[in-house]
Structure formats: C-alpha cells, structure tokens
C-alpha cells in the first residue's frame, strides 16, 4: 500500500485501481479519474439516432449507418442536420473505446475521454504515463507510390518488391552495438500486395506492419507506401470531386452546349446544358455522380464533376430555332448536333454507338452536399489509422 492509503491490486492484467467508492480529497466514485456522475446521463440517444438497440454488434452498427446514409445524405434529398446527427452517432458507437465511455458516462464522458482533460491517472499521480513494454520498434521504411487518377477511380492492386535489412548475431560481424555484441547484416526480399482502394486520397498511407527493417534489439519496423497522385491532362481532383475546364464558342453558350466526355474508366457520358440556359464566362456547373468514388463508401456514393466553361457572353438570352440559325450564320458556327445528325443518318455504326451514350443534365453546384461527402471520406480515413497514423491501413501481404 502506498503512502496516503491508495490501494492497488495485482494479477491478470497488471496493476489496477481498486474501487474504494469515494476517497477523501482524491478520487470519488463514478467516472475514472475523478469525474463525478451524480447526475443522470443519456446513454441511449446515439443508439436511437441509428435506430438500433444498445446490444447491437459492431456489424449491426455499421449496417444501420450505411442504410441510413443512403437515404439521409443531402445528395439524396436528406436533411443536412439530421445527417450530421447520424454521422456523430456512428463516429462514437463504431469506436469500441468511445462506445464503452458513452455507455457508462454519456457524451460528456466521451468528450472528456473518461477523465477531466483526458489525462492519464498514472501520469497525474506518479509524474509519468505508462510506457510501452518490450523492445523498441525499428523505424518504418517509407516508399512513395505513384498512382494515376484512373487507379484511384477504378481501384488497383499492385505487387511491390521491397528489401529489408536484418541483423544476425555473429562474433565475426562488422557491426557492433554498445554492449559489444557483433552482428552481421543481411537483406531479405519480400513481395507485398498493395491494394489501392477506390477514392483513396493523395498522401494516403498503406501500412504493412512488421515488414520493415529489424535492427538489433528492436522489433521489426513497418513498411509504408504513401500514395502520390499524378497529374491528369483533363481532370483535376478536389477531394472526392473532379474539376475540368471546357472551352465553348459564344454560339454554344447562347444556344446550348452538348459534348461527349470519355471518363477515367472509358465510359462515355453526354453532358449538355439545360434548355434555355445561358452559360457565362467561368460559369461552374456540376454533373452528379461523375466524380470519384467516396473512400469508405465507394459502393454507393460518388462525388460530382464540376465543369468550368471558358466563354464570354450575355447573362441570359433565349432564341427561337430560326434565330439560332440566323445567329449561327452570323457567328460562323454550326448548331449543336446538326453535323452529327447528318453523319448518323448515313452511318449505321454511328447511330448504334449513340445508343450506348448516357445523357445527363447539368445542375447548380451544391457545395453543402460536397462538404457532407468530404466529411464521410475524412471519417473513413481516420477509422483505418490504428497502425499507420492518419490515413493508415492494415493489409495482408504475400511473401516470396
């Protein structure tokens, strides 16, 4: 027993506090570290937000969240505030430690980390926190992995050969540690299978725990691949969205624009302005669901394609077909679709190809919906960081 009468018990999981109910001047009963719990706390609100019972498993929580996200997301016409509540509930209940704190002490306990200021009781009492046991870990080996925007759109699996250093104890070795032990250095080649998932961010870390160098007296380090996104000639990336610039004539701006875009995976989509719409210079319009897959939600959600038009024009004009033809003659332009229609009339192959082109109408850019999609991707990035820091990802490898 320590001075001051603070009892400890040992065994099983090491040192632990014994609950004394209420220590004078120190640790009252209730939340660990002295947070009182003499008032009732709500520990059901977050479960109700997801429509699940408190006994729900981790898989049930994720399934409920995914189901609600499909209908409650602002892109699907849902209420943004309601969607934020659903996201908040999932961020806590999907984390085992946070869920335990919530079940015991409500949201206030989660915010405090179970203790005022989220501190460590060992550190507060003895001047130092609990330290990592066992040998130190070797430094990670970091490689940059160049990826094309097409790989991020479709996903890709690559096999990467890496070489790691190992040190074997050898009395004749040319490497000696401070304690006089000699080692011989050797190298081992491994082949790692790297899965580039749809929608991964530039700078995302893919971590292979324990596949890195093994220094004397150390645990094996990690191998980390950091994605380095390459520039694309047509598209720029902004989070889960794509941006492209499109030059159009004044005639197209006044009478309507229509063009066929070949996307990153080869599929074609016809993009056209809404009837009667006038496109001014630097106007930005969006094409829904033609952005990148949203990381962590790629099976059902994509960003948008923003199109910025480069043209000078009046703010709004409407023309009759006769006026369009007259203006076309003045401007020396061909009305949209006229040349294509004539060609298609004489070419069965061109007409058949037209049947496989999907037509989508431009919409006003919705920045609130874009923010909600980015929040989802940021949440998914953080959930994969157990081993590799922000954006980390645990994977299996194939060794040869």
TrEMBL record:
Where does this protein have compositionally biased stretches of type Basic and acidic residues?
A: 364-376
Q: Which domain of life is it from?
A: Eukaryota
Biological processes per GO annotation: protein folding
**Residue ranges constituting the J domain according to the UniProt record:** 45-106
Record field: compositional bias (Acidic residues): 377-387
Does the keyword Repeat feature in the UniProt annotation?
A: yes
> Is the keyword Nucleotidyltransferase in the record?
no
Keywords, A to Z, come to:
Metal-binding, Repeat, Zinc, Zinc-finger
Q: Where is this region: Disordered?
A: 364-400
GO molecular function annotation? Hsp70 protein binding; unfolded protein binding; zinc ion binding
Which PROSITE patterns does the protein's record reference?
Answer: DNAJ_1 (PS00636), DNAJ_2 (PS50076)
Q: Which Pfam families match?
A: DnaJ, DnaJ_C
Q: What is this protein called?
A: J domain-containing protein
Q: What is the protein's species of origin?
A: Cafeteria roenbergensis (Marine flagellate)
